[in-house]
Amino acid sequence: MPNGRLFKVHVVLALPALALLLTAGCAAYRAGAPDAAPVPSVFVEVVENETYLPQVTALLSRQLRETLAARGGTTLAASPRQAAHILRVTLTDLEQAPRAALPADTTRAASYDLRLGAAVALLDSAGDTVRASTVEAATVAYLNPSLPDARHHALPRLTADLAQRIADAVLYPWDARDGAR
Predict the structure, then answer these.
(1) Structural domain count, the chain
(2) Tell me, what's the pLDDT at 38?
(3) Are 36 and 171 in contact (CB under 8 A)?
């Protein structure tokens, strides 16, 4: 029976040491990306559009502001003079490719893959480029009843995904040289 009692003493002495080791590892933890450049405040310029998608700039600009505001840690500035950084986004290309054909008519597409690309630049308050990258997002547009209608319904999903990816590229860059992920 002395061995059982000795075991209990060792366990009682080891538990506080184990707890100390486990909590010491958490002391240096910091939320967010470990090497992310701080972006305390940002002014989001109106998105420029080099694609043929009408009215996409207002939608993406709004979604981008909402995404940045929801992330926390970064405040949105009302003007470039009030911001530490300026975010400039240009929609550069839109690709749509047939994904599936209609069963009754194989020459007509039933759905399309849509991909939207953007050039993103984060500028400092002096207008110098701090970080630049290209970002893209993709979704599927199901034709019902027509491609313009399908694209209209798919556009909010596509731009919301693009806004998330732009926010990631700006706030949490992995490559300090170009912000690419």
Answers:
(1) 1
(2) 64
(3) yes
